[in-house]
Amino acid sequence: MTTQPCALSVRDLTLAHRGRTALIGLNGRFEPGVATAVIGPNGAGKSSLLAALAGQLRPTAGQIERDPRSRIAYLPQQTAFDRSFPVSVHDLVAMGLWPRLGAWRRIDASHRALIDAALAQVGLADAARRPVAELSAGQWQRALFARLLLQDADVILLDEPFNAVDEQTTTDLLALLAQWVAQGRTVIAVLHDLAQVRRHFDQTLILSGQRCRAWGPTAEVLGTVEPSAAVAWLNPSAPWLQAA
């Protein structure tokens, strides 16, 4: 019997962003069917890690190893999007089909059915024709998750997906995240809310000072997060640490 390959692994991974070292010497594995939370103070390299895993940031040293058959979907922070662009919710979500269709293949009735189903799954069935500029922060994030659904990825990378999002939307999207994990997909998310991490994530990776400080089962890793013990390598005033 063969061992199921890991979705992603990193070996001595070192990253730089805008001329500054962002992460040094990270080693570890992100397994299929596991949700991993990446936490730590600002500037610790969390977003750089996700960008590198997505193939958008080239390592300065070390390696990222992945199954070449794996499909990767990446959702950056909300600030990375221009919501004033004149596009409908339907067309935004349809962009999730590009990996399968390419930029020029026409969307047919079967594809429109997939788009409608994704919108319904995130609670936006009645918003398909609305301009994205009219959406609330929560509705916008629901639309982006609908686009992720259509990407049908093996690995899903989420950078602060619940920041500035209302409680009901967060609850609904966390339920969708749980479905992805149950389907055997790999989910890696940058988060700041330790309560969410404890409840919904199997593994936790703590980054601070551009280095890995802990990585393993969430209950074990967060049991080590104590301001008195971590003051040398964590910002004790960070909101996520205060919640511990």
TrEMBL record:
Name of the protein described by the UniProt record: ABC transporter-related protein
Domain named ABC transporter: residues: 8-234
The species this protein was found in: Leptothrix cholodnii (strain ATCC 51168 / LMG 8142 / SP-6) (Leptothrix discophora (strain SP-6))
Entry annotated with the keyword ATP-binding: yes
Gene Ontology MF, one: ATP hydrolysis activity
Listed Pfam families: ABC_tran
Family matches, as InterPro entries: AAA+_ATPase (IPR003593), ABC_transporter-like_ATP-bd (IPR003439), ABC_transporter-like_CS (IPR017871), AztA-like (IPR047748), Metal_Ion_Import_ABC (IPR050153), P-loop_NTPase (IPR027417)
Species lineage: Bacteria, Pseudomonadati, Pseudomonadota, Betaproteobacteria, Burkholderiales
SMART domains per record: AAA
Record-stated family: Belongs to the ABC transporter superfamily.
Superkingdom to which the source organism belongs: Bacteria
Xref: Gene3D superfamilies: P-loop containing nucleotide triphosphate hydrolases
